[in-house]
């Protein structure tokens, strides 16, 4: 790809990830990358020197593709004019019709924080003015951050904003809940950290490349009727399913194409992985161990029974 790419907000989280990805892949030469930010040129920001624009007008004049990676509330103040350019927006909730007032051919994309390691999944939607050549350009640019797919409607992009657009936020929330629970139970810090990492990172590859089997995996754990099943039941009682799949029409905090609001439902869904869920599993495990201990004592007739904590080794956790 040989064209100049201008990035407004090029030293922010997503903007900087895009610049680094373009340079490292490499998908663009340093002389083809134009960067603008609020704080001014930062020669040490990237491993190779790029072009720094004076302002938005200068960036547009130097670029064929304009990437806007700023907060949605900062969009009106840009007063961007980009006639004849392809505009790629990373702003949540700013709709195509507002972007189109810039005079550009417009695409909305929703990367996530995994762009920092080249692992973002980025869905995107284009307006009717976007050409097939533009679509190929978008796919190439987004490859600097990971993988991407076009979607059919802006409503779908709003859904993706609340799901894949969140990146590691909700797994991080779950990890924090697990850590908090284990620390409160007196588990050593190293063990607590490794345990949380095993749940969030270590087990995830079981679903990699076959995420459609997730319901089957949940069903397998339920069928054991053990401590994991108890935790799943606690999650459902706490409203995990309803919160994660809540109808947006009933939720005023849902992403609004005109209002740039993020959904509050997904954080709610994941936050229930705290004491109520992990605690339910612990309670189930302890109950099973007490039952096993009682059976052991009854069958042995010994007055010196092993305590419940050591009578059985649990295989279904």
Provide the descriptors you would attach to this structure in a database record.
317 residues; alpha/beta; eight-stranded mixed beta sheet; 8 strands; 43% helix; disordered C terminus
Q: Helix tally? A: 13
Q: Got a strand count?
A: 8
N to C succession of SSEs: EHEEHEHEHEEHEHHHHHHHH
Query: Any low-confidence stretches, pLDDT <50, length ≥5?
Result: 247-273, 302-317
Span of the ends, CA to CA: 51 Å
Question: How much helicity do the residues have?
Answer: 40-55%
Largest sheet: 8 strands, mixed
Average predicted local confidence, pLDDT? 81
What is the percentage of strand-forming residues? Answer: 5-15%
Shape: elongated
Integer-rounded radius of gyration: 25 Å
Spatial ordering of strands, largest sheet = 3-2-1-4-5-6-7-8
Please provide a written account of the structure.
The protein is built from 13 helices and eight strands. With 317 residues, it is of the alpha/beta class. Strand 5, helix 4 (96-99) and strand 6 (105-109) form a beta-alpha-beta unit. It starts with a strand and ends in a 17-residue tail after the last helix. Residues 247-273 and 302-317 have low confidence and may be disordered.
Helices and strands, with pairings:
Elements: E1 5-8, H1 13-24, E2 33-36, E3 51-52, H2 56-62, E4 65-68, H3 75-78, E5 86-89, H4 96-99, E6 105-109, E7 120-126, H5 132-142, E8 146-150, H6 154-162, H7 169-184, H8 189-202, H9 214-224, H10 227-237, H11 240-244, H12 265-271, H13 275-300
Parallel strand pairs: 1-2, 1-4, 2-3, 4-5, 5-6, 7-8
Antiparallel strand pairs: 6-7
Helix pairs in contact: 7-8, 7-12, 9-10, 10-13
């Amino acid at each position: 790809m040989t064209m100049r790419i201008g990035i407004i907000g090029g030293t922010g989280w997503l903007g900087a990830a895009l610049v680094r990805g373009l340079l490292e892949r490499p998908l663009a030469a340093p002389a083809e990358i134009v960067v603008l930010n609020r704080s001014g040129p930062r020669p040490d920001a990237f491993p190779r020197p790029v072009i720094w624009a004076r302002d938005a007008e200068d960036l547009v004049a130097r670029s064929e593709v304009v990437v806007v990676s700023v907060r949605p509330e900062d969009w009106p103040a840009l007063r961007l004019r980009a006639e004849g350019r392809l505009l790629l927006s990373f702003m949540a909730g700013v709709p195509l019709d507002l972007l189109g007032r810039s005079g550009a051919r417009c695409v909305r994309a929703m990367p996530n924080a995994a762009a920092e390691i080249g692992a973002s999944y980025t869905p995107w939607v284009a307006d009717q003015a976007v050409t097939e050549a533009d679509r190929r350009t978008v796919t190439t640019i987004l490859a600097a951050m990971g993988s991407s797919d076009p979607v059919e409607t802006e409503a779908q992009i709003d859904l993706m904003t609340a799901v894949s657009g969140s990146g590691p936020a909700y797994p991080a929330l779950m990890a924090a809940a697990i850590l908090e629970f284990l620390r409160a139970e007196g588990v050593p810090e190293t063990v607590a950290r490794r345990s949380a990492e095993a749940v969030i990172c270590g087990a995830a590859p079981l679903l990699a490349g076959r995420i459609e089997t997730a319901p089957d995996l949940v069903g397998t754990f339920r069928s054991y009727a053990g401590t994991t099943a108890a935790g799943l039941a606690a999650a459902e009682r706490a409203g995990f399913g309803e919160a994660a799949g809540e109808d947006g029409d009933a939720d005023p905090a849902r992403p609004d194409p005109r209002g740039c609001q993020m959904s509050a439902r997904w954080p709610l869904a994941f936050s229930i992985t705290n004491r109520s869920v992990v605690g339910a599993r612990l309670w189930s495990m302890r109950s099973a161990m007490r039952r096993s201990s009682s059976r052991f004592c009854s069958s042995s007739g010994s007055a010196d029974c092993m305590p419940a904590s050591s009578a059985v080794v649990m295989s279904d956790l």
